[in-house]
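Researcher: Structure for this, please.
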Amino acid sequence: MARMTRPDGVIIGRATVGRGLFAGRAFRRRETVLAIRGRVVNYNLLWEREGSAFSANCIRFGPETYLDPGGGPARYLNHSCAPNAAVTKRANRLYLVAARRIATGEEIVFDYSTTIGDDDVWRMRCKCGQPSCRRLIRNFGSLPIERRAFYVANGFVPPFIIRTLADRVSLGVSRHAGL
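Model: Predicted structure, token format:
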């Protein structure tokens, strides 16, 4: 497959694990890389299609909903325990933003745990190969407290995920902060 830069500045290509999303140009820290588009589905549909490519590619959108990126570029987002991007939610839409500078040609990866609430049972083996690899991708609350605090402080966790945590106070997140 030829690697062509899409109008949104990303490339779909071969990655260490299957296919991945790559930077067709450099992105600055906090720059929006991509608006994640797709249809919003109820979690019951994921349970019905558990184990399918459909359920594996959906991203948590709200307390009981997921976003199916269909055949769009977000379908090719891979996980890393040392991510260079994050999924954020603004104005009822999901966006992929650069968590640090991303160089042209670099694979764009995010930490799946930032979109998995503590009320979710999904998990998978990690194959990111990073020195900081946790070996198992689980819910946000399973991350080390320092990592959780970093993600929250930088706005790299959607508020509905934070609301699922039993120990929000340990993050310095007030129950009265609108989260």
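Researcher: Any notable elements?
Model: The radius of gyration is 16 Å. Residues 145-153 form the longest helix (9 residues).
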